[in-house]
Backbone:
């Protein structure tokens, strides 16, 4: 085999490796996004059940659930690099990459609202209910704009 054929083969192999690693990185980011959203969803469910009286209100648990939401955004916002727009059964809307600054602003608002709800938990159920309502509004505003709806 000639040196040029070997070099061409190695170049092709390197190109395939780059494409494969990019696909793996995209799948990892999508999987991690789903993991973070699952944790946020669980925390939201806990808050919702307390607000609805389906679970007894426990200030420590309410605070912990809101702390989960408040702390999630910093990591979550980093999980949208170019190349992760599709695949992995993502429900992330393409609009995220088109208007990332707005997406990030909404996420930061949700985190701030969750931090307020965390603090409100120590004041009792009624203050927590009011603050938790703002968290759910923040979540909804982002989902309305940046989540592909499943059929």
Residues:
């Amino acid at each position: 085999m000639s040196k040029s054929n070997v070099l061409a083969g190695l170049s092709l192999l390197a190109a395939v490796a780059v494409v494969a690693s990019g696909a793996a990185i995209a799948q990892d980011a999508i999987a991690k996004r789903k993991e973070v959203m699952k944790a946020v969803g669980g925390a939201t469910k806990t808050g919702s059940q307390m607000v609805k009286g389906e679970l007894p209100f426990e200030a420590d648990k309410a605070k912990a659930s809101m702390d989960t939401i408040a702390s999630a955004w910093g990591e979550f916002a980093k999980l949208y690099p170019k190349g992760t727009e599709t695949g992995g059964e993502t429900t992330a809307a393409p609009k995220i990459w088109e208007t990332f600054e707005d997406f990030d602003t909404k996420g930061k608002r949700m985190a701030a609202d969750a931090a307020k709800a965390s603090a409100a938990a120590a004041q009792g159920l009624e203050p927590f209910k009011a603050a938790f309502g703002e968290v759910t509004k923040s979540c909804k505003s982002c989902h309305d704009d940046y989540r592909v709806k499943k059929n």
